[in-house]
Amino acid sequence: MSNSSALSDAYAKKRPESASWYKRARAVLAGGVGHDLRHFKPVPLYIERGVGGRKWDVDGNEYIDFLLGNGALLLGHAPAEILAAIHDATDRGTHFGNDHRLQIEWAELVQKLVPSAERVRFVNSGTEATQLAIRLARAFTGRTKILRFEGHFHGWHDDVIHGFQPPFDADGSLGVPMQVRDHQVAIPAGDLGLVEEVLSRESDIAAAIIEPSGASWGRVPLAPEFLRGLREVALRHQVLLIFDEVVTGFRFSPGGAQQLYGVLPDLSCFAKVLAGGMPGGAVVGRTAVMALFDITGNAHHDRHQRVTHQGTFNAAPLSAAAGIAVLKQVAGGKVIERANAMAERLRDAWGKVLQRHNIAGYVYGLCSTFHVYFETDAARARAASSHQDLQTTDAGRLKGMPPELIDQYQRLLRHHGVDVMSSTGGVLSAAHTERDIDEATTAFERTVLSLLEDRSILSLSSPAGTVE
Ligand code: PMP
Fold it and tell me: What whole-number distance in Å separates Cα of residue 25 and Cα of residue 346?
């Protein structure tokens, strides 16, 4: 039996309850799961509860969690202050459809923390936030097209679905009209000359949208100088700059990546940490742009000259309550420092594992995130004389590791009690402990040793590092 099917068997053996839920799921859930990233063989995870940096599945298996609600849980699972705020709000009714006090307090905190947040409009997710930001930019400029960067993820709506996964020139999804695709220009990030060229050539670009961390919360690193340059070029061409801070917001600093790097976008999108583990998102930005939501009483203006926006659950009370609770913690600065310190410990320890075993790869990431790159190109691995030599900012390479490798990596890690966010990386919370990191490092070491044995990953430039 191959190592990989032995692992699958051992994995399944510890998950009989999960298997029976999976059977029921396949008979009722379209696609068998609730999110493309939750597909998993032999069975998806069915999580029962979480506390701090850990969670447990329906079979009682324990995981050190670096998925953390897809990056939403900066304070870890079930933090007392957020649960108390939600309970308190629940006691007064879950949803009104009217505005309420908590929405305003939540917005005030966002305005106080985020440098460019002159005005705030709440939505229900990161996807809704980028959709609304793009509508605002088109309305403000009277132009149609969007400049986006290859590999950057901005949610799943039609306008942004092309160009986030390689091959970047292929359709993002079935079901998106060609005209929509024609409304975007996708280029590699990092080349200001190229941005200048596109903006000089194309007169119909309303906005440039970017993950300020670099694609997929920093999996493809981006120099902050590029953001500064982009700000300047966009201004010169009167194109709005949209920061997608869905992951970086309230995580990279209390005011997000824009505060960390000192770059002021015109509009920014938030979700995840913003709502403290409840559904929620926001578009924030310059008053002049956000005034497009205003109702003036002038019938012509109100019907024809503004941006419309509805949403049953916008700023729903429970989301607002959780959001206020988390942002109060974020404002203090300590929780971000703690999550960053834990991530640094992890990056350092996992990097040393790769060095100790002479594995062709490296560990990287900013603030409270981490990513692992495995070099699977034999020629490159052989040519590199140090881990340093493998470093790249090529989105095609960093986002193009073989899917079977990612699958097996995630299966091994879960088997050893660790869950990651997507691909090879994850996020840390203020609730993670040194012990969590040390145990996760042991799991990581076992994982890479198995991968090495299988020849799924390569050794670095050693004579033994020959690869089929
Ligand atoms: N933008 C970025 C940078 C994201 O990482 C995500 C979600 N992973 C989104 C937008 C979409 O957010 P949501 O899943 O809340 O729709």
Answer: 35
